[in-house]
Design a protein that fits this description.
The complex is a heterodimer of chains A (about 500) and B (about 240). Chain A is mostly helical and about 500 residues long. Chain A has a single domain, classed as Up-down Bundle (Cytochrome C Oxidase, Chain A). In chain A, helix 1 packs antiparallel against helix 13, helix 6 packs antiparallel against helix 7 and helix 8 packs antiparallel against helix 10. The longest helix of chain A is centred in the N-terminal third of the chain and has 44 residues. The termini of chain A are close together. Chain B has a domain of about 130 residues: Cytochrome c-like domain (Cytochrome Bc1 Complex, Chain D, domain 2), CATH 1.10.760. Chain B is about 35% helix and about 5% strand. Chain B is built from 9 helices and 2 strands. In chain B, helix 3 packs across helix 7 and helix 6 packs across helix 8. Chain B is elongated. Classes of the chains: A mainly alpha (about 500), B mainly alpha (about 240).
């Protein structure tokens, strides 16, 4: 063991070289993602507000829910989540394959195209050119812009993987490389079906399929790659079980593509399609169980680190949300439950839980780890990180609670035919207010994050030794702060 | 953590970062050790098994990958509330009303083709209203339901040439309910008949025709027009057989 866990001078040198080679693309993606996150939060807050007080700015077409909400989702998914994910992906691949990135310039050019596309998409939706297709709201022709710039940003990971300088393939590598190649497949399939004249019913199906697949085929693998990297790094322990990790990977790889149609239960699809999708969604819980067991066992005895290390705390919170997401998605795949929740606030909440609660929180964890390494300065303040965490955590938990209780109540009201539909709308008002609170909390939390990220980008971070911890004086290592011995416990 | 290796050339632009700090962030980092190979553990195994069972339950409602069944067992729309607003308590409802209500639910499988009003689609799907097949004996209807029809087919003087799927995947009870429903709702019943088809009668039909190939018109015409499936008549109020 002690041979493996010794940090050598060559290691350090190599890591520094790799970090340096990706620092421009990574920081480019992180900072532009942070800006988009801010925009998305703003739209999210406004759209929640519109739901509660529809009469607000009723005469202004630019501030209608029908535009604010799709704009919010587009900015959140393509501007923030995917961009941040690509940044993390590039860094992870470089680190894991131990190959320096040589195409940084090309990636940044493509990154500008992507940002331009996101900007255009949000603007187009905002001036009323959206299509009302969940997560694909932008005007039809724009998908090529996204697809091409994605390819230009991400193709490089394939040659890097091929010339990797490591023996066996680490589990995170499976996940990132998987995500890298799955996205073009699902994105192109969905868009071709929708834009090139599939039957309208099939187009709706493709859109639903795209949403769950983006979650299971892109967000989930990247977040899991992060978790499988961060947790052993911080804990200074090897991953508990490689076979278990691979079980998780293959479960996801085989089953994710079957999900999506459970959203259309009772809809104009042959009954077996929602049944099969529902079953796949439940089977995916195996990946959830495998991952959570693995990470918890890896951390066992050193959980105290999570109080101090920002990376670990965000990542583990993200994984907890992954488990909750998996369970809720599985639960609503049962026909008896799904038919109640189907048309309620639940679904919006579920999507937000995936993008914000699970994916984004894990990515924050990765960012807290990566950014000091590529910029060479430390996060300014542990206090701000703490606020970022707690406001995000409360925001997302509020959202989950509200959507679950609210969704059940609203769905139950709608199913009750002795009641007028308007009653169900009226009764859901309380939950809508909960949603505003949630977005308000998340908005505040992101202020701290965006501010810190900006400082790091400008090189204005703390110039000192030792990490910025959530608690305790800076400069100490997380282990020292947690009172654990530095080597294997 | 304090002695820095100043030989490293990190080549950062001035002002972006300092060699010293950069070095520290990377240096304090731990090495990624080769992954372990521990077994899975009982709790995880039990949880995985639960996921598999749950998925199996949902998957069980796939209705055999039929491309023409659209309605899931647990997902049948509630019927609209009765006119006076209050649904009568279960015990006070006549057996036949419940039987018809259930039949109507099963009929959801047929509406894509025969339409909710049973009038079909001209030239494509034959009507059930005014059809001699519905008005006639129950043996032919049972046979149609179990094995489906293919090829040219004449209904009420109009000819059709499509395929009617077999419904042998449905339980005997459901077939009985839907046949009762179409006969009483859409058919013109001969004098003295109540149009009820019971589960027992469909069981008999399965004995006779279960597992036979898809019908063509000739095969069905060979069954006598007014042949009824054997089975006891039932009391419409209670559903009990009448001796």
């Amino acid at each position: 063991m002690s041979d493996n866990s010794q940090v050598t001078a060559e290691d350090v040198q190599e890591r520094a070289g790799i970090d340096r080679s990706v620092r421009f693309p990574v920081m480019f993606f992180f900072t532009s993602a942070a800006v988009w996150l801010f925009v998305a939060t703003l739209f999210g807050f406004l759209s929640a507000l519109k739901l509660a007080v529809p009469a607000l700015w009723a005469d202004c077409q630019f501030l209608g829910y029908g535009r604010l909400f799709p704009a919010h989702m587009t900015a959140l998914v393509y501007g923030w989540a995917m961009q941040a994910g690509i940044g993390v992906m590039l860094w992870l691949v470089a680190r894991l394959t131990r190959v320096e990135m040589t195409k940084a310039k090309a990636v940044i050019v493509a990154g500008h195209v992507w940002n331009f596309a996101v900007g255009l998409a949000v603007f187009a939706i905002w001036i009323g050119k959206g299509r009302s297709i969940p997560w694909l709201d932008f005007p039809g022709w724009m998908w090529m812009l996204f697809a091409l710039s994605y390819l230009m940003m991400v193709v490089w990971v394939i040659p890097m993987f091929r010339v990797r300088r490591t023996g066996d393939v680490y589990i995170s590598e499976y996940y990132v490389i998987g995500a890298a190649v799955w996205f073009p497949w699902i994105f192109i399939t969905a868009n071709v079906l929708i834009n090139r004249g599939a039957a309208p019913v099939m187009a709706a199906g493709a859109a639903g399929w795209f949403v769950t697949n983006l979650i299971y085929f892109w967000f989930a693998p990247i977040a899991l790659a992060v978790a499988y990297y961060i947790v052993p790094k911080i804990a200074g322990r090897p991953i508990f079980s490689y076979p278990l990790a691979k079980l998780g990977f293959w479960t996801l790889a085989i089953l994710a593509g079957w999900t999506g149609f459970q959203r259309f239960m009772g809809g104009p699809f042959p009954a077996w399609m929602p049944a099969l999708s529902g079953a796949a969604t439940l089977f995916i819980l195996i990946a959830v169980v495998a991952t959570c067991t693995n990470l918890l066992m890896t951390l066992k005895g050193r959980q105290k680190l999570w109080e101090y290390s920002p990376s670990l705390r965000f990542t583990m919170f993200g994984m907890l949300m992954f488990a909750i997401y998996g369970v809720l998605a599985g639960m609503s795949s049962f026909f008896s439950v799904g038919k109640v929740l189907q048309f309620s606030h639940f679904l919006v909440g579920l999507d937000t839980l995936a993008v914000y609660g699970f994916f984004s929180m894990t990515i924050f964890g990765a960012m807290y780890f990566i950014v000091p390494r590529v910029t060479g300065c430390e996060w300014v303040s542990g206090g701000m990180i703490r606020w970022h965490f707690w406001f995000s955590a409360y925001g997302i938990l509020t959202l989950v609670g509200v959507m679950l209780v609210g969704g059940l109540a609203q769905g139950g009201n709608m199913a009750d035919l002795d009641q007028r539909f308007a009653v169900s709308v009226g009764n859901s008002q309380g939950y809508v207010i909960g949603r505003i609170c949630a977005w308000f909390l998340i908005g505040i939390s992101n202020l701290w994050f965006v501010y810190q990220m900006g400082l790091m980008f400008l090189g204005k971070g703390r110039k000192s030794e030792g990490p910025t911890l959530i608690h305790g004086e800076p400069g100490k290592s997380a282990e020292a702060a947690a009172g654990l011995n530095p080597e294997n416990a | 953590m304090s002695d820095h290796d100043h030989d490293q050339n990190l080549d950062y632009e001035a002002g972006t970062a300092s060699v010293v700090d950069m070095h520290d962030a990377v240096k304090r980092e731990k090495v990624l050790q080769p992954s372990g190979h521990e077994p899975m553990g009982v709790t995880a195994l039990v949880l995985c098994a639960m996921a598999l069972i749950g998925g199996g339950i949902v998957f069980g409602h796939n209705n055999g990958f039929s491309s023409s069944i659209y309605v899931q067992d647990f997902y049948t729309p509630e019927p609209p509330p009765s006119e006076d607003g209050a649904a009568a308590a279960d015990e006070n409802v006549a057996w036949i009303d419940k039987w018809m209500k259930d039949g109507k639910k099963v009929y959801n499988n047929c509406i894509a083709c025969h339409q909710p009003d049973g009038l079909g689609a001209p030239g494509q799907f034959p009507p059930l209203v005014g059809s001699e097949w519905v008005d006639g004996g129950t043996e032919r209807l049972g046979a149609i339901m179990l094995n489906g029809i293919a090829g040219p087919f004449t209904v009420a003087g109009q000819s059709y040439n499509q395929a009617m799927p077999a419904w042998n995947g449905l339980s005997d009870e459901k077939i009985a309910q839907v046949v009762t429903y179409i006969r009483r709702e859409f058919g013109t019943l001969p004098e003295g008949q109540d149009g009820v088809v019971t589960t027992e009668m469909i069981e008999a039909a399965r004995e006779l025709y279960g597992g036979k190939p898809t019908w063509d018109e000739g095969g069905l015409l060979a069954i006598p027009e007014d042949a009824m499936l054997p089975g006891a008549k039932v009391d419409l109020q209670t559903g009990e057989p009448i001796q």
